[in-house]
């Protein structure tokens, strides 16, 4: 595996989920691409078990930093970079929810835990904890 992407190693080969609302679940499944040259994160948000939103992120190392590209089922695109300090990944960049949407900033932190990870964003007051789904 690309050493800069080693922070994702414990997530690989597994799916992780969090409860967004009583009937809404966000599930992320991580796989390595090309023997660890990149990491793929495919996620699905379901409502009552039916998909309502899907997205895919590819994490890569560009020789200087971790970079990511995101696409979603609404036609949205985004991208940016990430830094790693201790067990925290800090993501910055911009995202368009759909093709005609204005860009929105990405400012998210993932704290890696022994049994999952926690996600925080300044816009949300709650911390979302992702645990092993399958």
Automatic annotation (TrEMBL):
It comes from the Bacteria. This is Uncharacterized protein. It comes from Sphingomonas alba.
């Amino acid at each position: 595996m690309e050493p800069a992407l080693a922070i994702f190693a414990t997530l690989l080969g597994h799916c992780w989920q969090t409860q967004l609302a009583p009937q809404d679940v966000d599930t992320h499944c991580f796989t390595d691409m090309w023997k660890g040259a990149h990491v793929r994160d495919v996620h699905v948000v379901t409502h009552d078990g039916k998909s309502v939103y899907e997205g895919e992120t590819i994490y890569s190392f560009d020789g200087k930093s971790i970079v990511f590209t995101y696409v979603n089922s609404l036609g949205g695109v985004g991208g940016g970079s990430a830094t790693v300090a201790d067990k925290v990944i800090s993501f910055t960049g911009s995202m368009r929810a759909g093709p005609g949407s204005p860009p929105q900033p990405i400012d998210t932190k993932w704290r890696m835990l022994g049994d999952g990870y926690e996600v925080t964003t300044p816009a949300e007051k709650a911390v979302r904890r992702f645990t092993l789904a399958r």
